[in-house]
Each structure stands twice: as structure tokens, then as C-alpha cells.
Write a structure and sequence with these properties.
Blueprint lengths: L6 E2 L12 H12 L2 H4 L1 H9 L3 H25 L6 H9 L1 H29 L9 H21 L1 H26 L16 H12 L18 H30 L2 H5 L4 H37 L2 H7 L18 H17 L2 H29 L15 H15 L3 H22 L8 H10 L7 H13 L3 E2 L1 H8 L2 E4 L3 E2 H16 L3 H14 L3 E3 L2 E2 L2 E3 L6 E13 L7 E9 L4 H15 L4 H7 L3 H9 L8
Parallel strand pairs: 3-8, 4-8, 6-9, 7-9
Antiparallel strand pairs: 1-2, 5-6, 8-9
Length: about 625
């Protein structure tokens, strides 16, 4: 029996949802546009000549497997930590520790590099700045961003939006004005070096797109993640892809081969051709903004990884501590800032960036692998609002491609990565394993292949709670009815009479009415008109004595219930029994069942569900209109 009150399902959230579509777009784009556009073109041109235009296009295509996989996972599990969370839940604890620490280190390292880039660009305005002063400026900017990220999440987002929009305005003006000064002869000998240098440069430029995945680390802070995450990430990717190709196309057309190869800042040099000294400074300022946005997005996203790991008991709980007023993980933000300042002051950032790029490629492999594992695990509550195109082939192609690119990074980054992985696994088994009892999706795949009950329901339950939080589900009376009513998993095949007898016995235990009387009512109701609503589904329903009484049975029979009408076997059945005064609720229940069971995937999920709790979860997380 249930009551008519409505209550919201309370979920313990780590962060406040402050970011909308514009913030998602600007954080993602700001994380991508920096050295890849303002410094790398001259290095790339030395290798591939004018064909770098094609290289930049290919580099974007190399990102597609990870973009599709990342968006799918982020819409299914919009949780803080992003890449770490997906990999930990998909592949398990050891992979989770490595991915979390590698993600945090990689983003922090690239953000530190971006801050040094900020100081380097200031040389355009103050030519006498020494390298020591550049480091001091980088540290100062780092402290500023740490404070900004510590005291106001909303202001951090707004700051990113203003800078990215200003950056776009300058670059669009650059392309519009520069297109009038293009010399078509600069494109001659486009593919003179063949395809090999084009592919090599695409691999060099590819890591510039890696910042796009940073946004998933703050998924827990995004409003309406089902829509804003895929829309923001995909829009950011296509806009930046067009911007990269467009800006490089114009720059190649303006600068001669000798000018391009000798330019440390090729965009600034090209702008000086048609805007003179103001153009040099304007594109220098744009580069400054680009590095600032990359650093800000990096601190924001990397500082969300340690709290997510601490919440999962993989790191000390202190790192998950939030400020009371702003709900910001201030301990993690400060700790991330200290790491970045140490990198800026004491370490060779150039070598670290190569290692960070290797980490990033490994994480891309794990993300693509996680999608395959999550899909093949058939975990009931894995419900992404966006599903990757061309599954699983695009993931397999991406994994092979990224393995190839990893070996292109050289032996030193590989050795550092191997040592880092060994240390991560050691940390997991010494510190985390005794406390962590989570079962990954990989174990569900193993269970399917071995037919052994080695996986538990913990992942299903966690994903159910994520769906509730993501979709802002409000619990109504039908939800409570589903939670409280008996669920029966029948072994069959079974006849209609045996089915009604079993249903009557279960309803009798719930309502206290005579089982023979209930059975007679079920038989009589079926004789009046069949309750088989469609192939595979029946909803027997009867009126019983009493007041304010309403009960339901949820029944599955994989082998099928054969009704006397000779219709197709029934695998799904909802048996309803209510007093006459519950007629209105009876109609609402019928409407809810109709909405839930009309989903194209419902029958498949129903038959695949591992147990009675999974059957409840299917109903509970299905899309339907809820009533108070």
C-alpha cells in the first residue's frame, strides 16, 4: 500500500551545478586553443610545408573516437573526475588509480606549460623580460587562478567565457582581414613531401585537441548534463577544428616559406603584414588570452580529480574537503596550484609535456576501452543520452591509432609512464584495495563470459543513483509502489492458470485477502477480455474489497506465460489489485506502465536483467511523465 505524497529523491552531491551550455563550450574551447595554434604551426610547417592545413584537419579526425566515447560516458555518468571516474567504473581500481593520477598530473603539467607561455608572450610587449621574470609571472598567474577557483566557481566560469569570446573575436578579425592578403603561390608544392610528414605533423598537433576532454572532469557542476555536455563538447570541437584550419590556411597564404619557418610566433608575424605593429601586438594579446584560458580550464578541471578519487577512498579524504560557502574543493585546488608552481620553478616543463602527452594518449585508449566494456557488460542502468557513432569500430580504430602515436613519443616518456603505472598499482594494492569493494563493469563482462556470479549489483545501484541525479527524478507514488511491491522471477514456460494461482498467492500475502478469491477474480477478469496488451506484455487487474488499498506484482518469465487466448507468450506482467476508491491511481499506474514499456529497448533490458533488483531499476529509471 502506498500514499499519495510526493517526495524528491535526495542524493548527496559533491558540487553545485553552476555551468550552462555557454560555460561548457568556453571551458572546452579555451582548453584547446593555445600552443597548438600560436606556436606549433611554425614547427609543423618546417616538416610538412603548406600541407599542414591537411595535418590540422587530420588531427581533429584523430580525436573523434575519444570525443564520441567521452561524450557517451559523460552523459551516462556526469560525475566529478570525468575520465578517472569512467575508467575506474569501467576497468576497475588499478586502472582507476593510474588514470586519476595520470589525468591530474597531465592536465596540471600542460597548465603549467601554458602559464610559462603567458610569460613568453609578454615579451612582445616587454622585450627585456628574462626567463626568470617569465617564471615569476607564470607563478603569479597561477596564484591568481588558484584564488579565483577557490573563492568563486561562478566567476571562474564567467572569466573563461569573457576571455574565450574575446579570443574568438580577434581570431575571426584576423581571418577576415588576412584573407585579403593571401598569396596563392604560397600553397604551391602542397604535398611535395608526400603523406608521411602530413601524418607526422597531425600526430604532433593532435595533442592540442586533448584539452577538449577536460570538461568531463567538471561534469558534476554542469546544469542539465544530458544536453549541455554533448552539445558543448561537440560544438567546441567543430568550432575549434574550423578555427584551426581557417587560421592556418590564412597564415600559410600570407607568409612565405622562409618567413614561416623562421617565425617563433607565426600568427603575430602574419598579422604584422596587414595590421603592421598593432597587428603584431593584437595577435600577441590573443596568444596571451589563449594560454590564460588553457591554464584556467586546466586548474578548474585537474583540481576535480583528487576529490573524486578521495570520495572513492583511493586518496586521503582531506582532498575531498569543500568550502562551506562556495562548495569548491579548496584543498585540492591549492594542492594542484602547489604542484604547478613546483613544475614552473624547478622542473624542465618541455620534457614533462611529452610525458603528459603520453599519459593523455593512454587515457584516450582507456576511455575508448571503457565504452566497449560498459556496453558489453550490459549493466542495466548504463543509460547515456548520447551514444557513440560506429560502435565498436571507431573505438577499436582509435585504440590502434593512439598506440601507434604513443610509440612516436620516444623512449623516455614511455619509461616514465611505466614507472608511474607501477607506482599507481602499488598504491592501489597497499592503500586502496583493503577499503574499496566496488565491482567494475569489466567484472560484469567476465561474469557474462564465464557464467559465474562474481560481479555484484553495486555498479548498477550507483548508475541508478547517477541517472536519478542527472535527470532530477522526482519520486511519485508509482515509484514508491515499484520500490515496495513484490517482484517475481518465474521459471517457465507456464500456463495461464498456474500463473494466476501464483499471482493470487503473492497478492494474498500482501493484501491479506483470500488467495482463492483473488484467483477467481483474475480468471473472471481475463474471461471478460484479455489483459495481454501487446506481444510479450500483460497487465491483469482486478477490483478488491477495502478502502485505500492498491497493490502490484512485477513479474518476469523468460520462457513465457501462455495465455488461453493463444497470443504470443508473455514475458512481462504487471498484476494490479486495488479498491474501488483507487480508480484514479489505477489509471495513472496503467499510464505509467504504458509509457515505460513502449521504449524500443525495454523488452531486451527486461530479459537481460540479472535479478529482481535490476528489474525494479529498469522501471524506476525509465522515461515517463511523473505525477505528484
Amino acid at each position: 500500500m502506498t500514499t499519495g505524497r510526493s517526495s524528491k529523491i535526495i542524493m548527496k552531491k559533491l558540487f553545485k551545478r553552476e555551468f550552462g551550455l555557454l560555460e561548457v563550450f568556453c571551458i572546452a574551447t579555451g582548453a584547446m586553443i593555445s600552443s597548438g595554434l600560436f606556436i606549433l604551426p611554425s614547427l609543423a610547417f618546417a616538416k610538412a610545408g603548406p600541407a599542414i592545413i591537411l595535418s590540422y584537419s587530420l588531427a581533429g579526425l584523430f580525436m573523434l573516437p575519444t570525443i564520441f566515447s567521452q561524450v557517451e560516458l559523460a552523459t551516462a555518468m556526469p560525475k566529478s573526475g570525468g575520465t578517472y571516474f569512467f575508467i575506474e567504473r569501467g576497468l576497475g581500481g588499478p586502472f582507476g588509480v593510474f588514470s586519476g593520477l595520470a589525468n591530474w598530473f597531465s592536465i596540471s603539467c600542460k597548465s603549467a606549460f601554458a602559464l610559462i607561455g603567458v610569460g613568453a608572450f609578454l615579451r612582445l610587449f616587454f622585450p627585456d623580460i628574462s626567463y626568470f621574470h617569465i617564471k615569476v609571472i607564470a607563478v603569479s598567474f597561477c596564484i591568481f587562478f588558484v584564488l579565483l577557483n577557490t573563492f568563486s566557481l561562478k566567476q571562474t566560469g564567467r572569466f573563461q567565457v569573457y576571455l574565450v569570446l574575446l579570443l574568438f573575436a580577434i581570431l575571426l578579425a584576423y581571418m577576415a582581414s588576412g584573407s585579403k592578403y593571401i598569396n596563392v603561390h604560397n600553397y604551391s608544392g602542397f604535398m611535395s613531401g608526400g603523406f608521411k610528414p602530413v601524418f607526422a605533423v597531425a600526430g604532433l598537433v593532435f595533442v592540442s585537441y586533448g584539452g577538449l576532454t577536460k570538461i568531463s572532469s567538471v561534469a558534476d557542476e554542469i546544469r542539465n548534463p544530458k544536453k549541455n555536455i554533448p552539445a558543448g563538447i561537440l560544438l567546441a570541437f567543430f568550432v575549434v577544428e574550423l578555427l584551426y584550419v581557417g587560421v592556418v590556411f590564412v597564415t600559410v597564404g600570407i607568409l612565405s616559406s622562409s618567413q614561416f619557418k623562421g617565425a617563433l610566433l607565426p600568427l603575430s608575424k602574419a598579422a604584422s603584414v596587414f595590421w603592421a605593429k598593432p597587428g603584431l601586438l593584437a595577435l600577441g594579446f590573443a596568444g596571451l588570452i589563449a594560454f590564460v584560458t588553457t591554464a584556467n580550464a586546466g586548474i578548474l578541471s585537474s583540481s576535480r580529480v583528487p576529490p573524486a578519487m578521495a570520495k572513492d577512498e583511493l586518496l586521503p579524504v582531506l582532498l575531498a574537503k569543500l568550502s562551506k560557502k562556495f562548495k569548491v574543493p579548496y584543498v585540492s585546488v591549492i594542492f594542484t596550484g602547489i604542484l604547478m608552481i613546483s613544475m614552473i620553478l624547478f622542473l624542465d616543463i618541455g620534457n614533462l609535456v611529452k610525458t603528459a602527452s603520453t599519459f593523455m594518449l593512454i587515457l584516450f585508449i582507456f576511455v575508448n576501452l571503457s565504452v566497449i566494456v560498459m556496453r558489453e557488460s550490459r549493466v542495466i542502468n548504463y543509460k547515456p543520452s548520447f551514444k557513440s557513432f560506429f560502435y565498436p569500430w571507431i573505438q577499436i580504430i582509435g585504440i590502434i591509432l593512439y598506440i601507434f602515436l604513443i610509440f612516436e613519443m620516444g623512449s623516455v616518456p614511455l619509461m616514465i609512464t611505466g614507472s608511474f603505472a607501477a607506482g599507481s598499482v602499488l598504491w592501489y594494492f597497499i592503500y586502496a584495495k583493503p577499503k574499496v569493494k566496488r565491482i567494475s563493469a569489466l567484472m560484469h563482462v567476465v561474469e557474462r563470459l564465464t557464467a559465474k556470479e562474481i560481479a555484484g549489483p553495486t555498479l548498477e545501484e550507483e548508475l541508478k543513483n547517477i541517472v536519478i541525479e542527472r535527470d532530477d527524478i522526482i519520486q511519485d507514488r508509482f515509484d514508491r509502489l515499484v520500490k515496495e511491491c513484490p517482484v517475481v522471477d518465474l521459471k517457465g514456460p507456464i500456463s495461464q492458470n498456474d500463473f494466476f494461482r501464483i499471482a493470487a498467492e503473492r497478492l494474498s500475502s500482501v493484501t491479506g485477502l483470500d488467495k482463492y478469491k483473488i484467483n477467481a477474480l483474475l480468471v473472471k477478469r481475463e474471461a471478460e477480455s484479455t489483459t495481454v496488451l501487446r506481444p510479450g506484455l500483460s497487465v491483469p487487474h482486478i477490483i478488491i474489497e477495502g478502502k485505500n488499498v492498491f497493490s502490484m506484482l512485477i513479474i518476469r518469465c523468460r520462457e513465457g506465460i501462455t495465455f488461453n487466448t493463444g497470443d504470443s507468450p508473455v514475458y512481462i506482467s504487471f498484476v494490479l489489485a486495488g479498491s474501488i476508491d483507487e480508480r484514479n491511481f489505477h489509471l495513472k499506474v496503467l499510464m505509467a506502465i504504458a509509457q515505460i514499456t513502449q521504449s524500443p529497448s525495454f523488452d531486451k533490458l527486461w530479459l537481460q536483467a540479472r535479478d529482481e533488483n535490476s528489474l525494479r531499476n529498469i522501471i524506476f529509471t525509465s522515461q515517463r511523465r511523473r505525477h505528484s
